[in-house]
Amino acid sequence: xxxxxxxxxxxxxxxxxxxxxxxxxxxxxxxxxxxxxxxxxxxxxxxxxxxxxxxxxxxxxxxxxxxxxxxxxxxxxxxxxxxxxxxxxxxxxxxxxxxxxxxxxxxxxxxxxxxxxxxxxxxxxxxxxxxxxxxxxxxxxxxxxxxxxxxxxxxxxxxxxxxxxxxxxxxxxxxxxxxxxxxxxxxxxxxxxxxxxxxxxxxxxxxxxxxxxxxxxxxxxxxxxxxxxxxxxxxxxxxxxxxxxxxxxxxxxxxxxxxxxxxxxxxxxxxxxxxxxxxxxxxxxxxxxxxxxxxxxxxxxxxxxxxxxxxxxxxxxxxxxxxxxxxxxxxxxxxxxxxxxxxxxxxxxxxxxxxxxxxxxxxxxxxxxxxxxxxxxxxxxxxxxxxxxxxxxxxxxxxxxxxxxxxxxxxxxxxxxxxxxxxxxxxxxxxxxxxxxxxxxxxxxxxxxxxxxxxxxxxxxxxxxxxxxxxxxxxxxxxxxxxxxxxxxxxxxxxxxxxxxxxxxxxxxxxxxxxxxxxxxxxxxxxxxxxxxxxxxxxxxxxxxx
Amino acid sequence: xxxxxxxxxxxxxxxxxxxxxxxxxxxxxxxxxxxxxxxxxxxxxxxxxxxxxxxxxxxxxxxxxxxxxxxxxxxxxxxxxxxxxxxxxxxxxxxxxxxxxxxxxxxxxxxxxxxxxxxxxxxxxxxxxxxxxxxxxxxxxxxxxxxxxxxxxxxxxxxxxxxxxxxxxxxxxxxxxxxxxxxxxxxxxxxxxxxxxxxxxxxxxxxxxxxxxxxxxxxxxxxxxxxxxxxxxxxxxxxxxxxxxxxxxxxxxxxxxxxxxxxxxxxxxxxxxxxxxxx
Lengths: 546, 279
Fold this sequence. Notes:
Chain A starts with a strand and ends with a helix. Chain A is α/β, with parallel strands linked by helices. The longest helix of chain A has 18 residues, at about 190-205. Chain B is mainly alpha-helical. Helix content of chain B is about 75%, strand content about 0%.
C-alpha cells in the first residue's frame, strides 16, 4: 500500500441559493495515492471541476465548503491560513487547465513565465533558474528549449502551450498534479501526445495525478483508478479495468455504452446513385491585409482543389483537425463564404453563380445545423418565431408555418409548449433539437451539420445523433456531417472524407476507411483516438451488454 | 410589448424614473393651464425669495415668476432633448449597423466619416451650426443631433461586429433572409440594450447641451429654457440663489430620471434577466 497523499472525506460544497441543487459536491470520499493517476469522470454540472478547485482552495466566492474535510499529506486544508496555502499551491499541489490559449500571459516570454514561478517560491540564483527552466522545457519534450525560452506564447501551437503549462506545473516538483480537462481543447493527435507525456512524467517523477475528464476514451488511455461523478456524488469508484469492463452503476453503464468504437455502423440503406451535390475543384484562400498603408499579406489556404460528391440520402462525414478547412467547405456549400475557384453543383446547377430569387430557392434546399447551441438561436426571439420566420419569408402562410413548427417540435422530441418559450429556457441538448427543427423547417434535401454534437455531453450526444439518424431515415435527407470526433463520425456516416490543411486526403465508405485507412494521415488520426483499443476490442462487447 | 411594459413596472428603479418622467411630461403639457400666459411677463415685485405668497419659487430681477419659467422651460428642454436624441440615435444606429454588418470598404468609409465629426470638439461645432442657421428650436435640434450621433454609430458598429459572426445570423443568411431584414429583425434587437441606455443618457446630455447653448445666449428667444434661466441668474447667484438653483435642480432631476428609466428599460428588454427576476 503506497502512501495516501490526498484524503477527501465526506466533502460537501454548497452552492448559492437559487442554484439547481443545494450541494455541488455532496458527500464525496476519495483517496489519491502516490504513483497513481486517478480520473474523475462526469458530465458537465457533475461537480468534478469544483472538487478540483476545492482542493486547490480556489472556490469562487459564493461557493463554500459546507462539510467534510480535505487532508493533504496529513494537513487539514480547510484550516490552513492563506499564506501557508499559497506556499502549498505550486510547491506541493499544481494544476493545469483546459484552455492553453488563455492560460499564458501573451506579453511575457515562455521562459520568463516559468522563471517568475521559481522566483516566487524563493529560488534566487539566476543561472540556476535558467538551467532549471530549460531542463523543464526539455522534460516536456518541447523542441529547442534554449530558443523557446525567449519565445512569446503566440508563436506556439495549442499543444505546445499545454506543454509549457505542464512545465510550469512541474517546476517546483509537486506531489500532486491536478489536470482539469487538459486535452479537451486540443486536436486528437495532439491530445494523444499530451496524454502520453502526462503518463510518462507521472511514472518518472512518481507523483499523483488527479485527472478530470468527461471522456471515457481518455480514461482508458491514462487512468489507474476511476471515480464516476453524477450530480455531485461519486456513484462508482474502482480500478480503470474494472470500471471500464464491468461498470456496476447504471449511470456508468450508460456513459460507457455511449462511447462508440470506430467500427462503422452498418449502412442504413442503400443511397441512390444519383448525385445530389457535387463539389468540383473548390479553392479558397483567406488573405488578411494589415493596416491601411502597409500592404503586408498573410495567406491561409483553407480549401485547395476540393472535390466531393454527396448522393441523395447519403451521409458524408467530413473529418479533420482544427484548421483543416472542413468548416470553410461547409460554409462554402451553404454560400456563407465566397470561394475563389471551383464549382458547387446542386442537382446539376452551379449554385455559386446564383443570386437573388434563384439563390433563395436553393437556400431552402440546403440548410445548416450549427455547433454551438447557445449561439445559434437568437436569444431575443421565441422558439415559435425562430421556427416560422424563414418559412414565412419563403412564402408559407402564417397558419401553416405555425402548424408545421409544432409538428417539427414533436419530430425533434420537444413538447409543443416550447413554441412560446425563449431559447435560454432550454438545455444545450434541447437547444440543439430546436436548431435541427429550424433547419428542417424549409424541408431541405441536404443538411450541412457543423459539429452538431461537440458542445454536448456524451449521453446527450447520443440522443441528438439518434435523432439525426431517425430524421434522415424518415425524410430521406442527405447530410454533410462535419466533425473532429472520429467516434461520432463512425456512428452516423456512410462515407468518410478526411481533410488536412485544406486538402481532401482520403475519401471512401466509412467501414473501408476505418478498417483499412490508406493515407498516412488518416492512419495517424485513427491511432490517436483515445481509448481506441478498449472501445473497439472484445471488452467493449461485454461493456455494451452490461 | 405589453410584456416589456409589465416587466418595466415591476422594476423599482425603472418605475421611479418612469413616474418622474411621466409627471414631468404632464407638467410640460399642462404648463399653459397651470401658468397661463407668457412666462416672460412681469407678474410680481422683483427679487421675491422662494415661498413668497403666490410665488412658490420666487421671482427674478424683473419680477417674472421662476416657477412659471421652470414649468414652461420643461416643454422646451424635453422637446429638444427627446427629438434631438431620437434623430442622433436613428442616424447613429443606421450608419453603425451598415458599417458593422457589411464591413470592408463600407465600414472604412463610414468610420472615416464618423471620425471627421469626432475630431471636431462637439460643443464648438454645435455653436457654429446654431450661429450659422440662426438660433431657433429647429436649428438647435439639428445641431445637437449632428454632434451626438458618432458615439452611437461606434457603439452600434461594435455590437454588430460581434453579433454578425454569431451562428444565429449565419442561420438567417442560410435561411435566405435579406441583409436588411437580418440587420433590423435579427441583430438589432440584440443590440437594443446598449443603444437604449446610450439613448437615454443622450437625452440627458442633449438637455445639458441645449442649456449650455441657451446659457451662452444661443437659445430660441421665443421660449424660456432652463439653460437661459441659469445663464440669466448667474450674475446674481449671491443675492438671488433661487434664480439658478431651481432650473438647475430641474435639469439634475430630469437627467437622473432619464438614466434610471434607461437602466430599467434595459433590464426589462432583456428576457433572460426578466425571467430570473420573476422567479
